[in-house]
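Support case: user asked for a sample of complex input and structure output to validate their parser. Sending the pair below.
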Amino acid sequence: MVFLIANFPAKTIGEPTKEELRVTLQSSVILLDPGGVQDSQSQFVSRQVNCQLVRNQGSTFVLDAAESIKYNTPLEIVLKISKQAKFHDGTLIKAEDVLASLNYIKESRNIFKNFFIWIKKIEILDDSTIVFYFEKPAPQFLKVLSAKNFAIFKNSFLEKVKKDKSLWKTPLGCGGYKVAEFNNEEIKLIPVSHGLPINFYLVKANQINASEATKYDIITLNVVGSSDELNNFDQLEMFDPIQYFVGLNTKSKLWKNKYDRCKFLSDLDTKSLLASYGKNAIEANDLLPKGTLGYNSNINFNNQIARLALKAINPIRTSKQLEPFCLAYLTVSIQEANRNEFINIFKMHYPNIIIKPMENVKKFGKSFVESNCDALVFALRTTYFDGYEFLTVFENNDGNFSGLENKNLNEHILKSQLISNPNERAKEYQKITDEIGELCIVRPLLTLPTRRIYIRKNLKAPGIGLISIHQYYLGNISRSS
Amino acid sequence: MTAAKINKLRIHFLIERFFIIAGLSILLATLSVGLYFNKYDEQEMQKNNLQKIHSVLSQLIVPSLMISDLSEVRRLLYMASGDEETFLVVDNEGTIIMSDYEKSPISRFVLDSYKSINNCKNLGVTYKYIDGKKYLINCSILYKNDDFSGKNKIGVLLSFTNYKWFSFSPSIFYFVAILIGLFLVLIFLFRRMLYRQLLKPLVTLKDRLLTISTTHELLCTQIDEIPNASCELLEIKEAFERLLLSLQEEYSRRMKTEKMKALVDLAAGVAHDIRSPLIALDVIIKDIKNISEDQRIVIRNSANRINDIANNLLTQYRQRKNAELENTASHIKPELLSDLLMSLISEKRAQHRNDAVKIILNIEEIAYGKFSNIAASAFNRVLSNLIDNAFEAFADEIKISLSFLNLTGKNRLNIQILDNGSGIAPEDLQKIINGESISTKAKGHGLGLPHAFKAIEEEWGGNIHIRSSVNVGTTIELMLPEATTPRWFLSKLIVNPKESIVILDDDESIHQVWKKRFTQIYADFNFVNHYHPQDLLCWDRNNQSITNIFLIDYEFVGCQTNGLDLIEDLNISDRSYLVTSRQEDSNLRDRCEKMGLKIIPKTFAGYIPIILSKQGMTKTVDFIFIDDDIAITHAWVLHGITKGKNIASYNSIRAFKVDLNKYDLNTPIYIDSDLNDVMKGQDFAKELYDEGFKNIYLSTGYLSTDFKNMYWIKQVVGKEPPF
């Protein structure tokens, strides 16, 4: 499942107490509502507050609120809820709560529809037993169910939150932590039963100086400079790919002609942008980033666009270049430090650029199209290394930023989720990316394959390297001294 | 068992210890070898297993990696990895894919070491230290399934296996266990064989020998049979049996010898005891005037006869002693010729007791205390041969005499054997002199003479003269050079009339001998007679005077203390003389020499010259200077006048001898070495020393090193006056 990258301003923070766990967060609008499009920072906080039936522990699945999962047939799964699983108010999790939570996700989100297209019927046998029936065998079912969006909330809470969205700041979940304080600078969580209290600090600059490392226990941001304080940290270089894209609004008067779009996209020069991200960044050659199912190292998506660009009748006119060019970007994706590098790509062609930051990520595609802006810069990160996570924004939903409603492509993407064989599905993903390439509505700019995390050495964090930091449960951490 | 033995370990303990150490050593060695091979085997097995895992895992990973199904790749890596092993994949772009990124040292190592896939070939299977931990690293290249041309490498699979310092290989364990078991069994069997075949028989042999040694069963020369004894042990047993037999024989021989020794010692004791009264008798006989000559001859012959018996007993004793000291008996050394002659004549008399031949021995008084450098046993043999020759020549009378001669300044001892036998024909005499054998027992005069010539002339520096007339008799003269008197021997006794003569002897006859000898010289001597050491000790407490001279016997009947001990206790060695018949005892002589004490052989008591000292009536001078150079003697006198010293100077030995007895014995005498006189100065000094002068200096221009071992010379000085 793809989630967007957050970016929020930092504030000056005092010396934290040793009892609490001090964790950095990228500056972002933290959204604990799983029905929206959560960026990675929101999902990191949600992971601590929410519980799920099953979780992905990197390479394996572990039961969370579920007591057992049994495949009666490839088309029928019986799932029993643990008697130990409780909400923050102490009440047991019931099957109706699970069903209500799934329905809330289904109703709230218009992307990631694959989960629900697999399911034929959900049946509650008793308070703790749910049976899932499928149309076709769905090997990815558990993988998707383990994605962070499928958190469980109390049915009554979901009823209330429909009327009062502000309740999402203190959701009644079933995770190990509950929210004690929530503001634009920090989020404080307290453990329900065990674990260190957590204080998330929203760092506006999306990076910290090495000398500031003393204020934190876990740093998920870039660290600039050097300091002896960093000797107190272990550094984890994790494979956690992010890919940056530029998408075009076909509703814009600039891009009525497909080949003009192709010409524009193929002419974008990303060299300086790549250089600004350092040696860790690689040029994106496929619509799907490296490390996701369906990625093909042998193709070059941009070449395909360039080939089409040759057919462009009208080269970019100078007069057009003087026209204002609206460039939108997702603030959760683009760091302040890199923003100008992105802008410079477009300035080469359209010097008169109007910048439009977009903070609302829930309906970012639809909002972008409606804004009449010409281009959108955004980043996507994978959660379960499947190409679908990147293709879902081309479905006919609120995430679609192109303004095109291509039914064939939409069906093609949805049908791909019914392919059990990963090899076949990967081939299908490549066909889909070819189709998207033919539309000239998007171009991948660069990929950051790995992420570096700093963890204070006096912390014992079992299994922290197994999964992305945003999927890690901080309640497992203890401090040795 | 003695403490020393306790400290020594018994052999079976040693063997047990050896086996324990050997067993442990073998155990350790085998374990070490086993561990080495175990490690080697395990490492090889580990490498092989890793390569198999790599092969299988590669086949599983490649399809997923080709479609970039990273979650599946990570799942496979997770399944393959464990606590001890970490698997990871590096793709063509150098991206590390692993199941758990917490193992950051490994990922850092990979980032540094695997810039490209080609590094995999260089590394292969190897050991590396990463962040202080040792890993076995295996690297294999991931190829696309459909093409193994090598052009379609899509990444590498790396495994990092924790290095184990020890890992257990069952096959090696069984091998080592079997090897150790085999060794232990072999050791056990060897030990058992050693115990049965060697140790047990050895202990049995030891027990039997211990039994024999502790019960002193020397009569038992057989050792009981030892079961299972090896050939070598049986040889040891037989050797012990032979040794026991030899011991038994030696024991029997010694028993006989000891008995004989006891008898001889008894006889020697009797001889000693007899000789003392005989000396007295001999002295008295000389002065008996009021009995007839015939009676006197009978008494003298009787005394001689008793003396012969005593001498024969002593001769046997000496022969035994000589046998004990066989090495020293054949050595040439100063011997008291009078003593040897008396013993030999007594032996000959006993030998020819039944022959009507008179053997007469005459010893000149001055010759009694003279020594000559000879081998005593050879001398006896020579004399014995010569006397036997006289017997064989049908002599009626054999006269043997010992006299002292001074021939052209050289002192000689002359032994003359004169018989009235058949004599020797001149032609035979020449043959004898030439060393040719003419011996016929019927005619006598044969084999003894050539041997006598050789010994006397070649070894002792003497000569022999034979004069013989057929049917008249033969006269044989042995001329032997006088030897320097040994330090232990007193050749003349010089006494001062003012001195008291203290005599300690348990034999009254000796007291009488001394009394007679001293009163013959000076009638007013004061005698103090003691018969027991205790008496002398009591007397000495109250009469400590330096004007006493002591004549002390060595042995006392029924008393542990001997004369030497007594002299030492009373600290009177400077004024004492040991009077004993034990003068032949070399230990006694040595002790006397160390004490500065002189011995008077008891047989010599009747003959030792006793000279009255002139002390008190002597000339008193500060120095005596003897030199043939008148100028030097004159210079000494003049220098003495200037220094207030009284110097007596002489230019010849003869001149000094005139005044010899006038000087006090403590007067310092300075003598030139080269006097151009009858003898050298140092030789004359020896005579003076024997006379009693103790402060004798050799005043000469020669180096002192030219006058070594002259104990009578106090110091070698120059010719300058010492004052």
